[in-house]
């Protein structure tokens, strides 16, 4: 079994396993469940002895005796390969050819891997409020036997975290479904993604603005167009600047492990 290179090690923050598994199966639908290792060993022994004839009184002589012994044996060991989220993802990562180095040659639909990205949460205050609602904080607020929290939850089914990333001069945009439980792997939270550099693995979908990512809640609020406002130095009027991002349909977020 090939030894894993230290550069291949990573910690898994988030994975859309259904998507990753489907793509991995399209690339190779054979799942390895075990591996048999065969070892061969050869043993040899050479024996040399010099004998003197005990009848030295009659004559003196010597004899050299050489004895070669060889024995071969084989050992077969079966290794069970554990199928984990990280193992499936690693197989997919090995097929990725697109990165930030050649992103301007990218076509929509290509797999992409961007290392060392710093992420920020878009509209953080609203996002944290929505998370509390989905966790049931407003369920106890009842008006005419109607729970305010239960009324709002159906509008939040498609709500997602929107995150922007930056590396060098390039900006990236991703979204992650905001579920009440088990959003991230290994008990991580959304805040852990904001603490350091991460790697983004996904499908490249061209240039988008944050306002292009809509959901039921923002539509009903009338805030689907999220644009930064700046003051025009000549006219004194507010001018809408729509920043463009490389949008990545995110499959997984990881952090490199250095040994």
Descriptive account of the structure:
This protein is an alpha+beta fold. It has one domain (6-33, 83-256). The protein contains five helices and twelve strands. The protein has a five-stranded mixed beta barrel. A hairpin with a 2-residue loop joins strand 5 (142-143) and strand 6. Helix 1 crosses helix 2 (85-93). The longest helix is centred in the N-terminal third of the chain and has 11 residues, at 17-27. Residues 43-59, 61-67 and 223-236 have low confidence and may be disordered.
Q: How far is the N terminus from the C terminus?
A: 20 Å
Element string (H = helix, E = strand): EHEEHEHEEHEEEHEEE
Number of helices: 5
Helix content: 10-25%
Average per-residue pLDDT, rounded, comes to 76
Query: What is the gyration radius calculated from CA atoms?
Result: 32 Å
Summing up helix and strand content along with how strands pair, one would put the structural category as: alpha+beta
* Range of strand content: 35-45%
Overall number of domains: 1
Query: How is the biggest beta sheet arranged?
Result: 5 strands, mixed, barrel
Unreliable segments of 5+ consecutive residues: 43-59, 61-67, 223-236
Number of strands: 12
Read across the widest sheet, the strand sequence of neighbours is: 4-7-8-12-9
Shape: globular
């Amino acid at each position: 079994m090939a030894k894993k290179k230290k550069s291949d090690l990573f910690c898994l923050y988030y994975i859309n396993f259904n998507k990753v598994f489907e793509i991995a199966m399209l690339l190779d639908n054979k799942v390895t469940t075990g591996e048999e290792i065969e070892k061969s060993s050869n043993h040899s022994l050479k024996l040399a002895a010099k004998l003197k004839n005990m009848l030295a009184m009659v004559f003196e002589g010597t004899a050299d005796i050489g004895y070669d012994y060889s024995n071969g044996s084989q050992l077969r060991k079966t290794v069970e390969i554990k199928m984990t989220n990280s193992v499936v993802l690693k197989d997919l990562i090995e097929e990725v050819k697109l990165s930030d180095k050649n992103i301007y040659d990218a076509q929509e639909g290509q797999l992409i891997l961007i290392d060392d990205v710093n992420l920020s949460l878009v509209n953080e205050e609203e996002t944290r409020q929505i998370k509390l609602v989905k966790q049931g904080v407003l369920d106890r607020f009842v008006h005419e036997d109607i729970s305010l929290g239960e009324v709002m939850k159906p509008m939040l089914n498609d709500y997602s975290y929107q995150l922007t990333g930056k590396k060098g001069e390039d900006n990236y945009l991703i979204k992650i479904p905001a579920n009440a439980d088990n959003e991230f792997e290994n008990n991580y939270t959304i805040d852990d993604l904001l603490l350091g550099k991460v790697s983004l693995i996904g499908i490249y979908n061209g240039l988008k603005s944050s306002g292009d990512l809509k959901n039921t809640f923002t539509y009903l609020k009338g805030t689907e167009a999220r644009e930064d406002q700046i003051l025009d130095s000549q006219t004194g009027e507010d001018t809408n600047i729509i920043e463009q991002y490389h949008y990545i349909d995110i499959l997984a977020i990881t952090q490199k492990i250095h040994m």
